[in-house]
Give the backbone structure.
Amino acid sequence: MLIGVPKEVKVHEYRVGLIPASVRELIANGHRVMVEAGAGAAIGFTDHMYEKAGAQVIADVARIFAESEMIVKVKEPQPAEWERLREGQVLFTYLHLAPDREQTMGLISSGATAIAYETVTNQQGGLPLLAPMSEVAGRMAVQVGARCLEKEAGGAGVLLSGVPGVQPGRVAVIGGGVVGSNAARIAQGMRAQVTVLDRNLRALEALDIEFKGTVETIFATSDAVERAVIDADLVIGAVLVPGAAAPKLVSRATVARMRQGSVLVDVAIDQGGCFETSRPTTHADPTYVVDGVVHYCVTNMPGAVARTSAVALNNATLPFVAEIAAKGWRLAAAENRHIAAGVNVHAGEVTHRAVAEALGLPL
Ligand code: NAD
């Protein structure tokens, strides 16, 4: 199959759909890959590296869209991109169509087959192409939280690890899923005192076994959340109710009772956030202060570590790209229900129930 990789055009998006190592694997499997010149340059993947991996590097993106049988990207297509898609072509990327009627209509009119990373499933009932970005955001949450605790960032001047003779910082993680468990790993590795709160006892049990009691696990009643938040130097919001806005678990009144210079990192901000005082921020201006508490609410945290994120994403997507390329999307979806779950739009129709319902379109 001829696979095309355009350079991402969304503002501040530096990731790339296929890294050179993925290109090499696909070429070894007998496919051809066209990469737009400069597609990976911002994160250290040069055109020369792509050529060495066997790709054709092409400056003319229109040609990549015109000739490729499958386009592999990172972000949802922008208007100029969906106008270039055509019938019989496969688009494999993050789409997030449910809240985006304009893009959905664009994909419908293109006639292409759009397979969304975020709805591809796995045998454990998880979303394997969403998980790598949650891993990145969870780990990063502790890094940015530790930085915000520094004095000149508005923080209380607390070193999360403490030093011999001085208590470490307290970290409360609300939600012990992919984001939360990764945050707990890094915070515990930094020697902070970590508490994870969740309503899913099985998630708490898994963390208890993993950390052998060195991380506290608490059932997330309102009472427990309130106590943990007031006690913490750093609170990480990591809850998810699939398909719904994040529940507001921490009220403004509770934030007001936190120590001055404490920090809230609301990773769940992409679903509206789980603190009442949260509002979306950007990497250019990531924090603001409410009642003396520093808030970090960046909606696309993995973008800041685009190189790690691109490699992590490729590790997860490559097996699916390879399967679709080898079999064609139709056979791949017929034989693999996890790929079928990813097909959101085909030949002018929405084919994913949740997307159709969200937008009031026929299935
Ligand atoms: P996940 O499904 O793996 O984990 C969510 C956890 O929240 C689950 O264990 C669930 O039991 C728990 N939960 C749900 N309701 C709860 C409640 N009322 N109290 C306590 N716990 C509750 O999800 P995830 O992959 O960890 O993602 C978490 C959030 O982070 C999502 O909103 C996701 O979109 C977001 N995210 C944001 C960024 C970013 O850049 N800001 C990046 C990646 C993921």
